[in-house]
Amino acid sequence: MKRFTRPWGIAAALALAVPVILLGAPAAHADPVSQTSGFYVDPNSSPARWAAANPGDGRAAAIRTEIAQKPMARWFGNWSGDIGSAVRGYVGAADAVDKLPLLVAYNLPGRDACGGHSGGGAGSVAAYDSWIASFASAIGSRPAVVVLEPDSLGDFNCMSQAQINDRVGMLSRAVGQFRSKAPNTWAYIDAGNPRWVDAQTMAQRLNMAGVGNARGFALNVSNYFTTGENTNYGNQVASALWRFGYSKPYVIDTSRNGNGSNGQWCNPGGRRIGTPSRMGGGAEMLLWLKTPGESDGNCGVGGGSSAGQFLPEVAYKMIYGY
């Protein structure tokens, strides 16, 4: 893996050197970092496929080097086909080269309920429970990092109490599936971003969603806020969790936060890629969870596109910050 500031083994040891407020939280599972030799680079990511298919394009070399060759997460949802086969193939490919895969589970019923750009998900609570159980089983004993359900705890304003209860119940059961079926996986529940929900409220929601049985929580997924802003917020959430008798570490999505946020969340212009995936950096890990260049939806500089569609011009400009 490229651009680690320290050798992987040393970085893994220093992962404990997070702010004091995060110490004392027991690990839910065995450490997948110490079992691997760096993060997995997905050879079939959308920027990698685009660069391979367009070698004569003047943007291809930069997109290949600055984005496609960096470790980033693969997202799994109702587009993934048989989820067991999809996950098994991905983590198996990473395991074969002794690398740590990053996965995002994104299939809750009514996902993105208030944003509206990435709607869909499993057809029912029971369907989701079955899907996530198969997801965890497919990882099995192989090392992995999984981020659970971006946006799931941030957008309660347009949901009924019954829908909220269903949602936190599904998340809590999902965490239980990873704890019992994927003992070498660190699972993080998405916790929004610094300007969405106040830290005390988010801690309460995380607790209801079963974060006590997860490795921790994830911040800034598919958003643009600086690492510093997220670190401040993450420390506040971690502190607020102590009222429930425990605290947890967190990870930050740095894939597109190099220029910070301009207040817009849906394909804003002028953004820039951030620190590549690494241990430490203020959080337990800084990770590329969103793929730079993949659209947030039919909005902003991605007008006319659909969520998840790779836009080479957006990716190219994100490399240079314009």
UniProtKB/TrEMBL annotation:
It holds the Pfam family Glyco_hydro_6. The active site is at 151 (proton donor), 296 (proton acceptor). Its EC number is 3.2.1.-. One of its GO terms (biological process) is cellulose catabolic process. One of its GO terms (molecular function) is hydrolase activity, hydrolyzing O-glycosyl compounds. The keyword Disulfide bond applies. InterPro entries: Beta_cellobiohydrolase, Beta_cellobiohydrolase_sf, Glyco_hydro_6_CS. Residues 1-30 form the signal peptide. The keyword Nucleotide-binding does not apply. Substrate binds at residues 75, 196, 223, 265, 290, 294. PROSITE patterns: GLYCOSYL_HYDROL_F6_2 (PS00656). Keywords: Carbohydrate metabolism, Cellulose degradation, Disulfide bond, Glycosidase, Hydrolase, Polysaccharide degradation, Signal. It comes from the Bacteria. It is an enzyme of class 3 (hydrolase). Belongs to the glycosyl hydrolase family 6. This is Glucanase. It comes from Micromonospora sediminimaris.
